User: Which sequence fits this backbone?
DNA sequence: CTCCTGCAAG
DNA sequence: CTTGCCGGAG
C-alpha cells in the first residue's frame, strides 16, 4: 500500500528528472568528506572546499591526519561552519585511522547495524551523514532521510509533521525492497524535487511531477 | 533577506 | 526546545 505509493513517487520523479548518478565523488573517502561538509550547506560550496583539499593533495586519511585543525578549517572555509566541520572531519579521520588502518574498505567487515552505531558515536556524524556514508560510500542499504524527504512526504499528507529520523527511515525500510541502487537514486531524486519544486518558500506545486499524488486520497 | 543533502551544545 | 555554527548563491 504505502510501498506502492513510494514506488509511484519514485517513478514519477525518475521519469521527470532522470538518473541523478549520485554521489558525485571519485572515491568512497571523498564521499565521506562530502557527507560531512554538506551538512546544511549548498553543494556548490562543498565543491569549492573539496577542490581546495584536492589541490593540496589532502584527500586521504593519512594526509588529513597530519594537518592541523586550523589549516584544515581555512581550506574548507567555503563550505561554511568551517571550524565545527574541520573538527568533525578530524574526528572521522581519527576513527578511520585509529581503528581501521585508514582504509575505508575495512569498514565493510563490520556488521552494518553495528557499524552504523559506531559511526553515530563519532561527534559530528548524525543520522543523515552516517547513512549517506553507509549508502553512498559503502553501498549498504540504508535509506538517507533529509529535510526534503520529510517536506515532500509531509506536504502530500503521507507522514505527520512531527516524526523522528529513525521512524521516517523505517517507513522506507519496511515498505521498499532493500535495494542499494534504488535507495541511492531515490534520495537524489527527493533532493532534485525539493530544490526545483517542493521549495521551502513559494513551492511550484502546479508544475510538480508529484501533483497528481494528492488526488489518490 | 532566505536557503542550503545537520549536528551538538546550551 | 532553542541557539550557534557560516560562506556563497539567488
Assistant:
Amino acid at each position: 500500500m504505502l510501498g506502492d505509493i513510494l514506488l509511484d513517487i519514485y517513478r514519477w520523479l525518475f521519469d521527470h528528472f532522470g538518473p541523478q548518478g549520485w554521489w558525485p565523488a571519485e572515491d568512497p573517502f571523498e564521499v565521506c568528506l562530502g557527507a560531512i561538509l554538506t551538512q546544511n550547506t549548498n553543494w556548490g560550496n562543498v565543491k569549492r572546499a573539496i577542490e581546495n583539499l584536492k589541490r593540496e593533495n589532502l584527500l586521504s586519511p593519512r594526509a588529513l591526519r597530519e594537518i592541523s585543525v586550523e589549516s584544515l578549517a581555512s581550506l574548507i572555509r567555503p563550505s561554511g561552519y568551517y571550524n565545527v566541520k574541520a573538527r568533525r572531519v578530524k574526528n572521522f579521520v581519527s576513527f578511520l585511522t585509529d581503528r581501521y588502518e585508514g582504509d575505508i574498505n575495512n569498514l565493510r567487515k563490520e556488521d552494518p547495524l553495528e557499524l552504523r552505531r559506531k559511526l553515530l558515536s563519532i561527534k559530528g556524524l548524525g543520522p543523515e551523514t552516517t547513512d549517506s556514508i553507509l549508502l553512498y560510500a559503502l553501498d549498504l542499504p540504508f535509506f538517507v532521510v533529509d529535510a526534503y524527504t520529510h517536506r515532500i512526504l509531509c506536504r502530500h499528507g503521507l507522514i505527520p509533521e512531527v516524526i523522528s529520523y529513525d521512524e521516517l527511515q523505517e517507513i522506507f525500510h519496511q515498505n521498499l525492497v532493500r535495494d542499494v541502487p534504488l535507495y541511492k537514486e531515490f534520495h537524489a531524486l527527493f533532493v532534485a524535487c525539493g530544490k526545483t519544486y517542493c521549495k521551502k518558500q513559494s513551492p511550484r506545486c502546479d508544475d510538480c511531477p508529484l501533483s497528481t499524488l494528492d488526488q489518490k486520497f
User: Anything to note?
Assistant: The two ends of chain A are 13 Å apart (CA to CA). Residues 5 and 216 of chain A are 9 Å apart (CA to CA).
